[in-house]
Structures are given as C-alpha cells and as structure tokens.
UniProtKB/TrEMBL annotation:
SUPFAM superfamilies recorded: FAD/NAD(P)-binding domain (SSF51905), Succinate dehydrogenase/fumarate reductase flavoprotein, catalytic domain (SSF56425)
This protein's name: Tricarballylate dehydrogenase
Species for this entry: Trinickia symbiotica
Record InterPro entries: CobZ, FAD-dep_OxRdtase_2_FAD-bd, FAD-oxidoreductase_2, FAD/NAD-bd_sf, Succ_DH/fumarate_Rdtase_cat_sf
Cofactor (UniProt): FAD
GO molecular function: oxidoreductase activity
Pfam families per the UniProt record, alphabetical: FAD_binding_2 (PF00890)
KW Flavoprotein (keyword) present: yes
Length: 467
C-alpha cells in the first residue's frame, strides 16, 4: 500500500517525496512529463532566496527576516498572507543543510546577477543539477517514480483523498500531496483569464511560456470544480519581459532581457510607458512581463547604448545594432520620428549624477513622464542596441488555499490527508509581483511541510484502518 502519493515532479514535489520517505513512508511520485523533461519549471531556476542573520558560505553580509518580509511586502503590494510568508522566510534560513544532504551544491552569486550575493544562494549547475540531485536521492531512498504519468482527476470522499487516476488506472494511497504546478502552458485557460482588451486583442495569444509545457493546470481546475478553497487572481503570474525570439516553451533564464534599467523601454508606438529605474532589477524584473502585456500587440523594445554593454547578463540572442537612432528605429520597425523624439526628450531630461548600478544612485530625469528615478544616463554613445520584448510567463498564481499545515481546505476545513505545495498554492504568498528566488523558497518550505505532514497522516490512516 502506498502511504504518500506525490503528484508532480518539480522542486516542491521532490521535497515532499524526500521528506515523507525520510519519515518512513512508502512514497510514489507521478511526474507528467517524460524523464528527459522531468522537473517542471525547477529545471530553469538558478537560486533560492534565503534569510540569514550573518554571512553564510556563499551568502555575504546579512539578510534578516524583516528585510526579506519588507521586500516581499513591497512587490506584492500587501497581497500576501503574512503568517505564511514569514513561515517561508524562516524556513529559508534552515533548509540548505537539508538540501545539501540530498546532493544539492551551492556557489556564490554569478557575476552577471546583480545585487543577489547577499540575498540568494545559487545552485551549482543550476536548476537542472538540483532536479537531478533530488531524483538521485529519491531513487536511492526507495521512492517509486513514474514518468509520463499525468493525473487529471482524483477520487474524493468529501474532503478525504481516496485515489488518483492516470488515464483509467486507479492509484490508491493513504495520503496525497498535490504539487503539479499552475496552468501557464494552457493557452485556452490563459485566454479565458485575460479575455480581450479594449483593442479587441487577446493578450494571451502573444504570451511565451518560459518554463515547462506540461503545466496545463488540469488537476488545479479539477480541484477548484470539486469545491476546494482557492486563492489568487488568474491573471496574476510570475511574468517577465523576455526576448520576442524565444521559443514558445522552455526558453528559461537565458531568454530574459536584463538591460531594462540601463536604458529605456518603448512600445510599438515608440513611446515610453513606465519608470525603468524604479528599483533594483531583482525586485522589479518580474513586473515587466505584465507591463508589456498591457501594451499594444503585447510587444515593447528595450533600448540601450554602448555605455550599458557588459553591465548586464547577456541574453541568448544578440540585440539589433545600429550606429544612429533613426537607423535603429528603422531596423526595429518603429516609427522613426516618434522614436527619435522620445529618446531626445529622455536625453534632455537626464540630470548629471554619479552612476552606480550597484546602488540606488542619483542619476535621474527631471520633468519627464514617466520619470526614470535611477540610472538615467543619456543614450548618446553608439552603437545603439534594441531588444524586442514579449511577456514570458513562468508560473500562474491562482491556486489552492492552505495554511501552515499545507492541507487542502474545503469550506474552510482542512482535509485530513490531502496536501498541496509549490505553484499550486504559491498564490497564498504571492498575490502579485515577484522577487528573485522566492518561488523556490515557497516550494521548498511547503514541499517539506506537505511531505512531513502527509507521512504523519498516512501513519494515522494506517492505524485507523487497523482499528
């Protein structure tokens, strides 16, 4: 008899499976993807945001709980459950020794990852190495793993889990952890959520999926229709401005455009629409996908000059290069006169200051709308470069409501043997916005909680059955 069934194959699912197995439970993990695509969006991650009160191996200085909380509060605009957020923050301080025990290795912040040496612990070999380490550890511990095993529905007795279905196959277990991701690769659901804009466009038609093609949200929709308590706005997501030439799925980190704060961003009408220097890039990169999604045709262009070259992580595709602004406008297909007017107005508004991309410096614009409040320097040094941007969806925030036990809730009551972790519940902490590495913090914390509690529940179910 299976004690703990884990549905999913990414970070949260693996943490749950490992924790349950460590506590003596017989565990089966069902991964929807083939083996070569295992790991969900985790394979594209790089780091984990970590609270720490003093320097720790790859982390410098300190990043205390209150600062982490304030960073999260700022990006979510208060749309977060503080108790659950602080649970995640505190758990992030203690999880790395456990991760190491399962083969995960860390390295210092990458040279192209600005401002993260203090806040984020990077995985040696990236997310793919972390996924492989966890799977090796799970196999060594005796966790059963099945690939190409998507679960579209489960059997419930009220709020109690009974079985899951892989096709027509019924898989019975004492307890279950749902960690099957969001619905970001379900174009129809994205279209339904975003609807049409005032221009008659379906914005979701122009979204690119940064991560796995297997997160279609089938099980999430089943649970919502089955009456599970849910939380979150279906249009809210970890959505990043990425290279418009990125593949439809699995482009990952290398398609992100990280030079936004070093220049200006214009829409297809060659007009700026937001403050590019609002805050440090790790705290603001995830707002730009949604901003681009709100522009005509869901496209925008990041424009820099030679002064920015070498100051950001280069994307996989080279930028469009030109020696003059009119030439760049023509190459990008932008209205030339308006483009030149926009850049010249920006240049004239830049005020002298001491440029420092590692600080919230005093290089700003004056009398310009929208302003650029930091890192504002004239674009006056050829060559000029432009990158076409599209919204890149990483994961969606609509999910199942839970509490500190990671239990799924029905009409406010906890299920005794059904738990949730990862993207399927991230909306409890992320009502909107994002800050680098926090998705892995949430998945690791709640994956471990769900796995541990599922093992306890399975033991109790066994005792109840024997009685």
């Amino acid at each position: 008899m299976i004690d703990v069934l884990v549905i999913g194959g990414g970070n949260a699912a693996l943490c749950a499976a490992l924790m349950a197995r460590e506590r003596g439970a017989a565990v089966l993990l069902l991964e929807a993807s083939p083996r070569e695509w295992r790991g969900g969006n985790t394979q594209h991650t790089r780091n984990l945001r970590c609270m720490h009160d003093e320097p720790q191996d790859v982390l410098v200085d300190a990043y205390p709980e209150e600062e982490f909380w304030q960073d999260l509060l700022k990006v979510t605009g208060g749309q977060t459950d503080e108790a659950l957020a602080r649970l995640v923050i505190r758990a992030s301080a203690t999880c790395r020794p456990w991760m190491r025990s399962h083969g995960v290795r860390f390295q210092p912040s990458l040279s192209g990852a600005l401002h993260t040496a203090r806040t984020n612990a990077f995985f040696m070999g990236g997310g793919k190495a972390l996924v492989n380490a966890y799977y090796r550890s799970a196999e060594n511990l005796g966790v059963q793993i099945r690939y190409d095993a998507p679960v579209e529905r489960i059997e419930l007795d009220g709020s109690r889990f009974v079985a899951a279905y892989v096709g027509d196959e019924r898989v019975v277990a004492r307890t279950c952890v749902l960690a099957a991701g969001g619905f970001e690769s379900n174009r129809e659901w994205l279209r339904e959520a975003w609807g049409q804009n005032e221009r008659g466009e379906y914005p979701a038609d122009n979204f690119i999926i940064r991560g796995t093609r297997f997160n279609r949200g089938t099980l999430l929709r089943f649970m919502i229709e089955a009456g599970a308590d849910c939380i979150g706005d279906p249009t809210q997501a970890h959505m990043v401005a990425i290279d418009a030439r990125a593949p439809l799925y699995d482009g990952g980190i290398c398609t992100r455009i990280d030079c936004v704060s070093l220049g200006v961003v214009v829409n297809r009408d060659a007009r700026r629409f937001y403050n590019e220097g609002e805050d440090f890039w790790p705290k603001r990169y995830a707002i730009w996908g949604r901003l681009v999604a709100q522009q005509p045709a869901q496209i925008a262009y990041s424009i820099i000059d030679a002064k920015a070259i070498g100051r950001f992580m280069p994307p996989v595709f080279p930028g469009t290069r030109a020696n003059t602004l009119p030439e760049l406008a023509r190459a990008l297909g932008l209205p030339e006169a308006q483009f030149v007017k926009t850049i010249e107005a920006y240049n004239a508004a830049c005020r002298p200051g001491t440029f420092d991309h590692a600080q919230l410096d005093d290089c700003r614009t004056e009398g310009l709308e929208p302003p650029k409040t930091h890192w504002a320097r004239p674009l006056d040094t050829p060559p000029f470069l432009g990158y076409a941007l599209r919204p890149g969806v990483t994961f969606t925030y609509l999910g199942l409501k839970t509490d500190e036990t990671a239990a799924v809730r029905f009409a406010g009551e906890r299920s005794r043997n059904l738990f949730v972790a990862g993207e399927m519940m991230a909306g409890n902490v992320l009502g909107r916005g994002y800050t680098a590495g926090v998705g892995m913090s949430i998945g690791t914390a709640f994956g471990r909680i769900a796995g541990a509690n599922a093992a306890v529940s399975a033991s109790q179910e066994s005792l109840d059955a024997a009685a």
